[in-house]
Amino acid sequence: MANVLDAAWPDHRPLRILHLGAGALTLPRYVQQTRPGSVQTVVDLDRELPTLVCSALPLPEGTDLTVVIGDARAELTRLEGRRFDVVILDIYTAVDAAVHLTGSEFYGELLGLLLESGVLLVNIGDDTGLRFLAGQAQALENAAAHAGLSGAWTLADATMLDRLQAGNAVLAAGAALDGQDQADLRTGLLTAGPHPAAVLDPEQTAALAARIG
To answer: 2-212 belongs to which homologous superfamily?
Structure first.
C-alpha cells in the first residue's frame, strides 16, 4: 500500500487519508514519517484497540490522526461532504466475514469519497484458490467502470497468484493511477517489491479473475 502512495504522489506532499480498520496503525505511522502534515482519520469497530496500540507504540510526534469508533460502513454517513486523497479498506473481509464491507456497491461508495485525483486501496485475504479475491476484483472493476475509471490493479506475492495460494493481495483503483503511464507505473511498483512481486494492471487483473472463475 505504501508503494502505491509513493507511486501516485512521488513529491511526498501531505495527504488526506481515511483508514477503515486501525490494526497497529502501521500505515498512518508511515504516512506521518514520509508526509508530515497529512490529515488522517481511522475508523475501527474495536474501542480498545487504538488506545492499546498507541500506549504500547506511540504515534510519531505531530501526527494528525482522528480515531472514530464504529462500523466502517455505518460511519460513512457521518463523513458526508468530506473527501480524501486516499481511502484504505483494511478489515478482515474474507468469505462470510463482514460481507457488508465488500462488493460493487460498497466499493462505489468508497470511490465516491475520493477527491478528483485519489486512490482506493483494499486489502484482501483469501484461501487457496483465490475465489474471494477474484470476486472482489470483479466487484471493484465494476465499481471503477461506473465511476469512469479504468479498473482495478492487483499487487501481491507472485507465487500466490501463480499458484493460487492462500495469502493477501491489495486491490487499487482511482484517478491517481489512471493519470499515469501504465507501463511505467507497473514497472515502478514491481521494482519497489517486496520480491517476488506481482503487479497486475486492470486488464491483467480482469484476466486473472476470469481465469479463477
So the answer is: Vaccinia Virus protein VP39 (3.40.50.150)
